[in-house]
Amino acid sequence: LFRLDPAVASLFRNFILADHIMRHYNVSPQSCPEIPATHAHPLWETLDYEIDLCLQQLPRLISEKERQQRLEDKIKRSEEERRIRANRRRQRQSTSSGSTDFAGILDGINMLKFSGPQRIKLEIAGSFHPWSSHNRIDGYPDGSSDESSSESGSDSDGAEEFSHSQSKTTGYVPSSFFMNQLCAFEVWMQHAGAAVTQFTSTLGSDGAPVSLSTHRPQFLELPEQLAIVLQLLLSQKYRLNALMLLYRFINLGPWA
Is 50 exceeded by the pLDDT of residue 2? Predict the structure, then answer.
């Protein structure tokens, strides 16, 4: 009745959830026809545990996002500073080349005008020209140093820190509820299979092996995960595992 129509099935699921939640507020939802109480089913504890695991990731996810944003901002600032330093170097280089060319022209004119001792004196004085290559520091006339090494070092440090943070970032970890249910059902199958094998190997009063009837043996309790495994038949991801476990379950006997 509650699964024939999709709309009624959705109402049925919502009613089950409301019955579990509203009981905490001393409210008891009612249905017609009446549905057996399910608010105290053990699977609710598993569901609450899975929700807690999901919510527990929020502080870590927020912290990872903030750290990644800070590193991205740091890399952007480093790139902007690198562009500014590159523009300054190009301006200094253009100024230096123009001044050096002008100084060379003056030296050539003076060398044509003077000869002998005066030329030697001029050449000696020209060797201490403030723009000459001997007085430059790292090739710049204003005594400024080349910042490319420190620039590349800071950029590489930022890139390494960013890649290291990405390797540490795990992101959201999906819930393993369905996989845990399949594993629990498989554990139940192992114990149930051993118990059924031992039971059927015994001999009855007439000396014949005991056979399982269509009724569930009293020494076996139905697995709580059976409903979840049946539901997983609708999931493409878990369908194969669910079918294999259900095949083993049906092989336990006609009662299954």
Answer: yes
